[in-house]
Amino acid sequence: MIGKRAGGRGRGSDTPRPDRIHRPGGLLPLYTLSHEPSAGFAADAVSCGASGECASGTAAIAAVYRDVLARFGRATNASVRSEMLHVDHDLAYESGAAGAHFPHGHLLAGRFSTVWKLQPDGHWKIYRNMSLPAVQP
C-alpha cells in the first residue's frame, strides 16, 4: 500500500495527481503477506473499524491486523475498488469498497474512507483510515 510519487520530492509543478498514487495489492498485503501489516501506515496514523473502534499508531494498527489473522487465518482473496480519489497538496482523499475472503467461508467486506499523506521521502502512506459498513441491498 505504499506508493512513491513520480518525479521525486519536489513541490510546485510536481504536485501529486491521482494517477501518481499507487496502491499495489490493496488489502492483499495486509491480510495475506508476511510483512509487517502496518507498513502502509504513517507513524501517526489512526485506523477505525466499521464498529467504531480505533487504533492509533503503527504498533496498535499492526495489532489489529494480527488479531484478524489470528481469528480468520490468511485471506484467500482480497480486493479494493477505489471509487473516488482527490489529491489536495500533501493529502489524498480516497473512498471505495474492499473485501477479503478467508478460509472456512469468512468474509470481511465494506466501504472505506482513507486519507493518504505524502511523507518526507516522497512516499504516500495512510494517515487516517475508516472502515464503513457495506451497502445494504
Offer a concise description of the structure.
With 137 residues, the protein is mostly beta strands.
Helix proportion range: 10-25%
pLDDT averaged residue by residue: 75
Stretches with pLDDT under 50, minimum 5 residues: 1-34
- What is the strand content? 35-45%
- How big is the Rg? 15 Å
| Intertermini distance | 30 Å
Order of helices and strands: EHEEHEEEE
Number of strands: 7
Structural class: mainly beta
Major β-sheet profile? 7 strands, mixed
Number of helix segments?
2
Q: What is the overall shape? A: globular
What tags apply to this protein structure?
seven-stranded mixed beta sheet; disordered N terminus; mainly beta; 137 residues; 15% helix
Any overview of this molecule?
With 137 residues, the protein is mostly beta strands. It contains two helices and seven strands. The protein has helices at 28-32, 58-72; strands at 3-4, 41-48, 54-56, 77-88, 91-101, 107-118, 123-132. Strands 1, 2, 3, 4, 5, 6 and 7 form a seven-stranded mixed β-sheet that branches. A hairpin with a 2-residue loop joins strand 4 (77-88) and strand 5. The longest helix is centred in the middle third of the chain and has 15 residues, at 58-72. The protein is globular, with a radius of gyration of 15 Å. It starts with a strand and ends in a 5-residue tail after the last strand. The model is unreliable at 1-34 (pLDDT under 50).
